[in-house]
């Protein structure tokens, strides 16, 4: 919620999170880090599968982010006070661990967060059907 609030304050014309909030605590600032607004307000194509979540700029087809599902540690969206936003935390080689905020107008936030949840659930079921084989010292 805090990250969504920061983005809403930083991006002109962003909707939501109009409620005044207390300044970030010191520990929260270290977690959130600096905002990267390079792609703010840009229309994107979001692709969600059991293997990854992919963000691509709709106009120029540039890949903004491609996060493997195992690198996503948290996803949230559709909260009443930020109903048009989805946030997820992912780790990648470029940004390390970062919180990514997506504005999803027209009630799409709930659909996006549900789809992410379904992808996690299907991935887990696939894992249960085909767990990785244990490597024994002899196999090394």
Automatic annotation (TrEMBL):
<dbReference type="Pfam" id="PF00640">
    <property type="entry name" value="PID"/>
</dbReference>
<dbReference type="GO" id="GO:0030971">
    <property type="term" value="F:receptor tyrosine kinase binding"/>
</dbReference>
<keyword id="KW-0341">Growth regulation</keyword>
<dbReference type="InterPro" id="IPR006020">
    <property type="entry name" value="PTB/PI_dom"/>
</dbReference>
<protein>
    <submittedName>
        <fullName>SHC-transforming protein 1</fullName>
    </submittedName>
</protein>
<dbReference type="InterPro" id="IPR051235">
    <property type="entry name" value="CEP152/SHC-Transforming"/>
</dbReference>
<dbReference type="GO" id="GO:0035556">
    <property type="term" value="P:intracellular signal transduction"/>
</dbReference>
<dbReference type="GO" id="GO:0007173">
    <property type="term" value="P:epidermal growth factor receptor signaling pathway"/>
</dbReference>
<feature type="domain" description="PID">
    <location>
        <begin position="40"/>
        <end position="140"/>
    </location>
</feature>
<dbReference type="GO" id="GO:0005886">
    <property type="term" value="C:plasma membrane"/>
</dbReference>
<dbReference type="GO" id="GO:0008286">
    <property type="term" value="P:insulin receptor signaling pathway"/>
</dbReference>
<dbReference type="InterPro" id="IPR006019">
    <property type="entry name" value="PID_Shc-like"/>
</dbReference>
<dbReference type="InterPro" id="IPR011993">
    <property type="entry name" value="PH-like_dom_sf"/>
</dbReference>
């Amino acid at each position: 919620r805090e990250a969504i609030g920061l983005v809403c304050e930083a991006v002109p014309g962003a909707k939501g999170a109009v409620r005044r909030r207390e300044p970030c605590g010191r520990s929260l600032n270290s977690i959130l880090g600096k905002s990267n607004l390079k792609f703010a307000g840009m229309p994107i194509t979001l692709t969600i599968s059991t293997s990854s979540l992919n963000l691509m700029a709709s106009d120029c087809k540039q890949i903004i982010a491609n996060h493997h599902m195992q690198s996503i540690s948290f996803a949230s969206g559709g909260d009443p006070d930020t109903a048009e936003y989805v946030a997820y935390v992912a780790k990648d080689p470029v940004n390390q661990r970062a919180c990514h905020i997506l504005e999803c107008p027209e009630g799409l936030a709930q659909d996006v967060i549900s789809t992410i949840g379904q992808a996690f659930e299907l991935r887990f079921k696939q894992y249960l059907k085909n767990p990785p084989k244990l490597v024994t010292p002899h196999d090394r």
